[in-house]
Each structure stands twice: as structure tokens, then as C-alpha cells.
Amino acid sequence: MQLLDRVAAPPAESGGGEDRLRSWRWASGVLSFGVLAVLAVFWETAWSIAAIWWDSPAFSHGLLIVPISGYLIWQQRARLAALTPKPAILGLGTLAALGAALVWLTGDVAAVQLVQQLALVAILQALFVAVLGLRVAAVILFPLFYLFFGVPVGSFLIEPLQDVTAAFVVRALQAIGMPVYLDGIFIHIPSGSFEVAEACAGLRFLISSVALGVVFAYVFYSQAWRRILFVALSMLVPVIANGFRATGLVLLAHYSDYQLAVGVDHITYGLVFLSLVLFCLLGIGYSFREPRRASADKASADDLSAKGRDDTMPVRAGSPYRLCGAAAGVVAIVAASAAYATQIEGRGADTRVAPTPPTIGDWQTTAPAHADWRPMFPNTSQDLMWGYSDGTRQVDLYVAYFARQRQDAEVVNWMNNLAGEEVWQRAGSGTTTVTLEGQEVSADYVRIVAGDRERFVWYWYRVDGHTTGNAYLAKVLEVKAKLLGGEQAAAVIALAADSAGDPKAAHSTLTRFAEQAWPFTQIFNRPKP
Questions:
Q1: CATH match of 352-525 with 2.170.130
Q2: For residue 234, what are the contacts with CB-CB under 8 A and spacing of at least 6?
Q3: Residue 443's beta-bridge partner residues?
Q4: Cα–Cα distance between 186 and 207 in angstroms, integer?
Q5: What is the pLDDT of residues 409-437, one digit of tens each?
Q6: How far apart, in whole angstroms, are the C-alpha atoms of residue 307 and residue 91?
Q7: Residue 124 has what pLDDT?
């Protein structure tokens, strides 16, 4: 760990050693109470992080982030001992805490847990800056920054990684001359079919590799290009390695007549393979480490330079009152944010869904086309689906209605699944344009399959009286409605049609139905006073 000391230490501050020691004792206690107070106020957000660490294999590495950050801070204890905590009640740390608290409030209003989690980490970092001061915080800047890697972020990468892995496997099999057909995330070869499931996307390995790569680059390199190069490798290598792993599983299953790589050994093979890749990645990084002598010479020069500046910047030790005041300011901001969020959460809804299917052009109501297909939107106020037929074609209309959006009960949420729970599976996705009330609106679609059955599902959102196919805009409208007192109710509207081997016909059917069906205002009625 000698390389941690390569950066020149700040000049030692003049002043009594006893005063500095006493200031550090107070700072340690105040920081401990401040951290506990922030976690107590935002306990739901803190608990959501810990629960994901414990329950999700993809983010279990988060359990190590805090200990690693603590160890990196401990490695800087000699440099820290030469400095004095200098709290600033109205300084940069307090302003940063205010900004992070506003971000947390926005995340709470929008029911975006990830934003709340990132903001919580930023508030804790701001607390350290407010209590310890900028000069001390600068010494432990990386360990504080590294806490962001404990936030369970990356679920949005699952679908892109599935697509990349599936494409990689197909190219690899084609390269060795094996006949292969790719259908979304389904790979078909003469002897059988394979699905690149979410667990096979490689998200867990990618996130762990990046977290390890960043701390490795910090510890073993001082030159920016070496750090950037190794972090880039830690992103690229796991994606490529996962492609080879998936290809190997397909070949292993094929040549063993599906006796291998289809059960527990599938997982074992993957873990062993990816562990070897991780060791290889570290070996690559170690191969272009900085020369030890050059690093030592640089550190020595830095130390001499620092000694030449000693005792030139006297700093008064922070008083207990200032230390407590700095922490209290941050905690007060946090408490005010939580209180305002509770007030907003109490606002009710003002609309509801009509219990009968709307009349839509010359389409007649009928039973849904497939009894085993129903989108999964948790915690809806009402979950409705109707079938429509014009005599030759059929469309299913699905509405997930939320009287008031809240955490895990919202139109945009990672748990929402238009394919349903078990029978149907996503095979592809994309965007399309639908004409609603004479205006073109961008909408997303998913292609789902169940055996030899295939259907396309178009969907968009209705939030605060507006219609949009953009998930991000839907979130912005949700925040606007809650903060400014708009319409609290929201809904997802989905149209589904079977393709019967003709995707163009399915899209044509959905286009015709949507043009006749809009506006859907018949679905949303004001409650009786």
C-alpha cells in the first residue's frame, strides 16, 4: 500500500498537538452521531440499499464497499493526523448537503429509489466535508467517492447485455461453422434452443469488475492514463468474457448431448470461468504497473516539497460548538426534506378508472386472445384488460391504473413486466409511432413469445393529463404533478396483437385500433363528490 502515499501530503498545520487531538476526538464523535442521525431519518432509503445487497447476487459486492472505503481512509491516518478538522457551518459541505437533499426529495416524489440512494450517499459525503473541512476531505476524497459503488445501480443494463451476449454467441458459432438462428434473446441451433436469461447477461460480473477495477487503479497507479486504461479494461473484459462463457455453455451442452451445462454445473462453470477471467484482468493490470523506483523517487520529492512548506499555514482547531453546529446543519436539512416528502405523500388522487370497457369505433368487445397473458404491474389501484375484434382481427387493451403513484406502485418501474410472469417472455423491443388524436406520439413496444406464439405489445403512459411514450418525461410529469398539485392519477395503456408470423400485419392492426380508440378519456372518470 506504499503507493497510496505517492500524492504529496498537504502541509502540516501549526498549532498545539493536544488541540488537534482533542478536535479529532470531537470530530469523530460528531461524525458518528451525524451519520446515525442521517441514516435514522432516511432509514427506508438506507434499508433499501442493505436489502438489495443481501438479496441480490448482482449487488452483493456492496457489502464490501464500506469496509474498503474505511480501510482506504485508515491508510491515510498519518496524513490526517497532521491536519486539523475545520468545520464550516455554512460552507461547501452544507451547500452540498442541501443540493443532495433536494435530489433525494425529487427521487422520493418521483418514486425513483435509485435517485434517493445516490442522494443519501452524497449527503453522507457532504456531512464529512461540513464537519472536517475541505483540506481534510481532500485527503480522503477517493474513499468518500468510492461509496457511490455501494449504490445498487445497473439493472437497466440487463436487457442491453442480454442482446449483446446473444449477438456475440451467434457470431462465435457462425465463426466455427455451426448453423445458428437468433430470435431476439433466443438462440436456435440444430440440436436445441437456448435463452440468454437475465442471470446470463453478465451484469453481476460487470459491476463487480468495475468496482474492483476502480479501486485497483487508485491503489496501483498514479498516472491518469494508466488508471483510465485499466478502468476501461474492467468494463470491456467482463462483457467479452461473458460472451465466451455463454458460447462455451452452448457448445458444452451441444457436444455432451445436453448432459452438461444445463443444471448446477451451468452455474459452476460460469463462476469458475469468470473467476479465472478476473484473475487474468488483475494480471493484465499488474503488467503495466508503474516502476517502483520511479514512484518512490516521486514520493520522496513530494515529501521534501511538503516539508518545505510545513508550519506556513496555521489553522485554528475547530471548536466543539462549530463541529456540532456543522453536523446539526446537515441533519436539519435532511429532517426538513423528509418532513416535506411526508407532506407531499399525503396528497390524494382525484380520478378513477371506469369499470366498463370503452366503446371503440366498429370494434366489438370480446374475451382477451390469450388467457395466459396478463402484464404484471405491482400494486395497481385497478388492473383492467379487454379484448376487441373487428371480425377478422383482434386487439387486447390493457390498462394499469394508479390512483396515486408511490414507491413500487408507479407507471415506470423496473418491476413492471409487459410479458407477464411466467409463460410469455420478451424476445425483443423497439420504438414506434402511433397517431393519437391527430398527433403522432412515440411509443415503445416489446415483442413477446410463448412457444410458437408471438405478439407485439405497444404501450405508453398517461400522467397528469398528458400522454407520452417517453418514460423519462412520464417521471418528470409525475414530479410536476406532486410538487405543483397536478392530477395524481396515472396509467399505462398497452395494446397487444398476435403477429401470426407477420409482424407488419400486427403493427397495422394496432395502428388502426389506436387511431379509432383515442381518446381514452372514457376510461378515466372523475369521482362523484
A1: no
A2: 209, 210, 212, 213, 214, 216, 281
A3: 432
A4: 24
A5: 889 888 899 998 788 988 888 888 888 77
A6: 29
A7: 95
Place of cell 499555514: 313
User: Residue 62 — φ and ψ, nearest 5°?
Assistant: -60, -25
Query: What is the residue extent of each domain of the chain?
Result: 2-152+317-345, 156-287, 352-525
> What residues contact residue 149 under an 8 Å CB cut-off, 6+ apart?
62, 65, 210, 211, 214
Burial 36-47 (b: 16+ CB within 10 A, else e): ebbbebbeebbe
Give the chain's mean pLDDT.
Answer: 83
Rounded-to-integer distance, Cα 84 and Cα 215, Å: 27
What pLDDT score was predicted for residue 272? Answer: 75
Instruction: Report residue 213's pLDDT band, with 50, 70 and 90 as the boundaries.
Output: very high
Q: Which pLDDT belongs to residue 421?
A: 79
Can you tell me the distance from the alpha carbon of 260 to that of 273, in angstroms, rounded to the nearest whole number? 15
Find where cell 485527503 sits: 139
Q: The C-alpha cell of 363 is what?
A: 370494434
Q: Nine-digit cell at 178?
A: 455451426
Q: Residue 207 carries which side chain, given as an amino acid letter?
A: I
Residue 376 in contact with residue 417, Cβ under 8 Å? yes
Nearest to 518 by CA among 404, 399, 409, 437: 437
Q: How many residues in the chain?
A: 529
Q: Which residue in the block uniquely carries the three cell numbers 423491443?
A: 429
pLDDT confidence of residue 14? 47
Q: What share of the chain is helix, strand, coil (3-state, %, to 5)?
A: 55, 15, 30
DSSP H helix total and E strand total for the chain? 16, 13
pTM over 0.85: no
